[in-house]
């Protein structure tokens, strides 16, 4: 049987995470056989389907282009997936806010137990996933005939983009009388996406104010970094919610993670401890962040950051 | 309008867990337990809806062992009116939790059902979405604002790119994110009063739900521990290490 991957996209662009989810699907296909179909659902998503067709390993891109799928609301998307599900052994999506919103709803419609945030494919029915904020890793075997899985994108290397898979149309149009879109406030940023950035620099409560986050800008510019934050910095209103890194925010695993004025609570570590190199800047030499940092610099961030920017 | 809130007893968020030596599970013996933080936010939201006159009654429900009644009493002390304990000592999969909660929704007919977005033990982030599917209701997940209107509710959701607002037909299911509200603490007189509030106990069998397990936990491991590194004395030394040892900047 085949595998279906739900493509993640926003602002008319295929999200980077999708290439990582296809890599997870590829590992299942290697173990179990089967083709990989990629579903692009939304409104005016033709250009996204073209991007998706380039992903290596994809046999076919299926496009459901209709106003009812605009903004990827959970109710119509889950109904669409449920209508397609019987042709598939596995349905995957990234563990993004869209994937986490839609997949469990789909699973319940099909009366199966889903698995969220898988980190590895052990076999076609066995997967590893983090529990307790990543302080334990569970190996879980699913006896369901349809496996519904959300995938932690940072745990799989992206597939390449040298394919040109055929694109066909899905005619299924569902009805949505339950929910409607009212509006959105999206953060505008020229910087790379947090989940896919090579370098991430994050600020915590120690930054003191939203204005002081500007101290990170120049360094981020020089390093091509995305900017993240701790929950405390978001709760205090310094920066918007989409910048939160951690157990209940975004998961990042860049080459270089720089934590500034962040103490290192387990919920924060859950989102960044798989980074390759971690730097911590904190004035408290006992801060737990130093236990995971490769390079720790004890001192006042208000002195260190300008100096770092200037010397980079 | 009645509001139903599902709460889960989990390990206290401050506790660092240990994996059992035989790798069968995490070790919860003598570990401090508490209400899941996202469920505290759910209870708080329901109580505020009651205080605003939007909700007429707040009912809390939990599925778990006898000891989970502590968390129901906490919810009652925080302002819930009555509680339902669905008692079982088994590990219950999220799909089964959702099926049990569906029975409760069928019985109670709440206008709004509020759950946490995620339980901090399983980190599943599934139950609310599954309950919404099983009841055929709309879902407003990861809510940072809930605004009940006439026949609908506007839910502002924390999504990867920022915030999204959706309008849902009532009755509906909402799951809470961190910034929906700041939960209050229970006051001693309220804790005393909570002991007298009604708490019903039922079994899954009484609700007609069989506890099936489709997921088998084969093994639980401790993740590879990161080795703490070194302290550098200056910005110059840091840059030197990043360039020449770690080779992550050029
Ligand atoms: C259910 C739940 C989910 C959570 N999810 C997340 C999550 O996803 N992500 C997350 O980050 N947190 C999360 N948390 C919160 C977490 O427990 C911590 O409260 C939070 O991470 C602390 O943020 P912080 O390190 O910025 O603040 P603090 O712990 O207050 O640390 C601030 C640090 O800044 C340092 N500092 C202050 N001034 C300076 C200065 N001038 N120069 C240098 N250093 C300075 C201090 O020494 C201190 O170490 C969650 C909590 C719960 C209960
Ligand atoms: N055993 C349970 N009893 C009551 N509510 C639960 C239970 N398990 C999960 N929930 C609810 O579902 C939410 C999300 O849990 P989960 O999907 O397991 O991450 C929790 O915050 C609770 O509101």
From TrEMBL, chain A:
FAD binds at residues 205, 230-231, 244-248, 261-268, 282. The keyword Flavoprotein applies. PROSITE patterns: ETF_ALPHA (PS00696). GO terms for biological process: fatty acid beta-oxidation using acyl-CoA dehydrogenase. Residues 3-185 form the Electron transfer flavoprotein alpha/beta-subunit N-terminal domain. InterPro entries: DHS-like_NAD/FAD-binding_dom, ETF_a/b_N, ETF_a/FixB, ETF_alpha_N, ETF_asu_C, ETF_asu_C_CS, Rossmann-like_a/b/a_fold. One of its GO terms (molecular function) is flavin adenine dinucleotide binding. Binds 1 FAD per dimer. Its cofactor is FAD. The electron transfer flavoprotein serves as a specific electron acceptor for other dehydrogenases. It transfers the electrons to the main respiratory chain via ETF-ubiquinone oxidoreductase (ETF dehydrogenase). Belongs to the ETF alpha-subunit/FixB family. PANTHER family: ELECTRON TRANSFER FLAVOPROTEIN ALPHA, ELECTRON TRANSFER FLAVOPROTEIN SUBUNIT ALPHA, MITOCHONDRIAL. This is Electron transfer flavoprotein subunit alpha. It comes from Modicisalibacter muralis.
TrEMBL record, chain B:
Residues 23-211 form the Electron transfer flavoprotein alpha/beta-subunit N-terminal domain. One of its GO terms (molecular function) is electron transfer activity. The keyword Electron transport applies. This is Electron transfer flavoprotein subunit beta. It comes from Modicisalibacter muralis. Heterodimer of an alpha and a beta subunit. It holds the Pfam family ETF. The electron transfer flavoprotein serves as a specific electron acceptor for other dehydrogenases. It transfers the electrons to the main respiratory chain via ETF-ubiquinone oxidoreductase (ETF dehydrogenase). GO terms for biological process: carboxylic acid catabolic process.
């Amino acid at each position: 049987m085949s595998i279906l991957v739900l493509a993640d996209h926003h602002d008319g662009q295929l999200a980077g995470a999708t290439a990582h989810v296809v890599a997870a699907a590829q590992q299942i296909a290697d173990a179990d056989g089967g083709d990989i179909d990629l579903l692009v659902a939304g409104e005016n998503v033709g250009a996204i389907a073209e991007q998706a067709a380039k992903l290596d390993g994809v046999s076919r891109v299926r496009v459901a282009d209709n106003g009812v799928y605009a903004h990827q609301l959970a109710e119509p998307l889950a109904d669409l997936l449920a209508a397609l599900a019987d042709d598939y052994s596995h349905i995957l999506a990234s563990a993004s806010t869209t994937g986490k919103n839609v997949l469990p709803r789909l699973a319940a419609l099909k009366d199966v137990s889903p698995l969220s945030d898988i980190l590895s494919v052990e076999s076609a029915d066995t997967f590893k996933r983090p529990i307790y904020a990543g302080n334990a890793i569970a190996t879980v075997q699913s006896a369901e005939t349809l496996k519904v899985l959300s995938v932690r994108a940072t745990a799989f290397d992206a597939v390449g983009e040298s394919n040109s898979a055929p694109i066909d149309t899905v005619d299924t149009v569902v009805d949505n009388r339950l929910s409607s879109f009212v509006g959105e406030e999206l953060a505008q940023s020229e910087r790379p996406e947090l989940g896919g950035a090579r370098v991430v620099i994050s600020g915590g409560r120690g930054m003191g104010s939203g204005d002081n986050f500007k101290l990170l800008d120049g360094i981020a510019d020089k390093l091509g970094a995305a900017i993240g934050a701790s929950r405390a910095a978001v709760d205090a209103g310094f920066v918007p919610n989409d910048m939160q890194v951690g157990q209940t925010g975004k998961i990042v695993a860049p080459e270089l993670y720089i934590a500034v004025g962040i103490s290192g609570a387990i919920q924060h570590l859950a989102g960044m401890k798989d980074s390759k190199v971690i730097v911590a800047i904190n004035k408290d030499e006992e801060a737990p962040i130093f236990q995971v940092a490769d390079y720790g610099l004890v001192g006042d961030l208000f002195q260190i950051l300008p100096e770092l920017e200037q010397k980079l | 309008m009645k509001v139903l809130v599902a709460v889960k007893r989990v390990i206290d968020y401050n506790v660092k867990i240990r994996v059992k030596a035989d790798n069968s599970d995490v070790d919860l013996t003598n570990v401090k337990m508490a209400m899941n933080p996202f469920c505290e936010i759910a209870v708080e939201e329901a109580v505020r809806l009651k205080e605003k006159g939007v909700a007429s009654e707040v009912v809390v429900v939990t599925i778990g062992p006898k000891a989970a009644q502590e968390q129901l009493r906490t919810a009652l002390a925080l302002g819930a009116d009555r509680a339902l304990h669905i008692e079982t000592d088994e590990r219950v999969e999220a799909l089964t939790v959702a099926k049990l909660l569906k029975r409760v929704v069928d019985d109670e007919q709440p206008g709004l059902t509020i759950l946490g977005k995620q339980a901090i033990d399983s980190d599943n982030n599934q139950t609310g979405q599954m309950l919404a599917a099983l009841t055929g209701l709309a879902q407003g997940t990861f809510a940072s604002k809930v605004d009940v209107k006439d026949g609908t509710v506007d839910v502002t959701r924390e999504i990867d790119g920022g915030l999204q607002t959706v309008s849902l037909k009532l009755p509906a299911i909402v799951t809470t994110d961190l910034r929906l509200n700041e939960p209050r603490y229970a006051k001693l007189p309220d804790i005393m009063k909570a002991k007298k509030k009604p708490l019903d106990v039922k079994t899954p069998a009484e609700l007609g739900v069989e506890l099936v397990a489709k997921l088998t936990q084969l093994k639980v491991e401790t993740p590879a521990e990161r080795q703490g590194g070194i302290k550098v004395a200056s910005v110059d030394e840091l840059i030197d290490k990043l360039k020449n040892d770690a080779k992550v900047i050029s």
